[in-house]
Design brief:
The chain is an alpha+beta fold. Helix content is 33%, strand content 25%. The protein has one domain. Strands 1-2-3 form a 3-stranded antiparallel sheet, covered by helices on one side.
Length: 81
């Protein structure tokens, strides 16, 4: 994700998928009166691509977690921050 020159002074933070599966990235910008806006780009793979995530999730100790559920579990704290 990128922001243009007009929004650069309002930049607050970025985040991305800590598992390095590339499932999401986000940017947070500050607004007036302490408001913040988080823009999130999410990739939720299905079928064979989701199945390809299983070995990596297994290496993280999450062998019984379906990829879609792992995405929800990992993304929720980011959205609540």
């Amino acid at each position: 994700m990128a922001i243009m020159n007009q929004a650069l002074p309002r930049y607050h933070s970025t985040s991305s998928d800590d598992t390095h599966l590339g499932r999401w990235s986000s940017i947070c910008i500050s607004g007036r009166e302490g408001h913040r806006l988080r823009l999130v780009s999410i990739y939720s793979p299905q079928g064979a691509v989701a199945d390809s995530h299983l070995p990596h999730l297994g290496s993280l100790g999450r062998i019984d977690t379906p990829p879609a559920e792992a995405l929800r579990q990992d993304l929720l704290p980011i959205l609540q921050a």
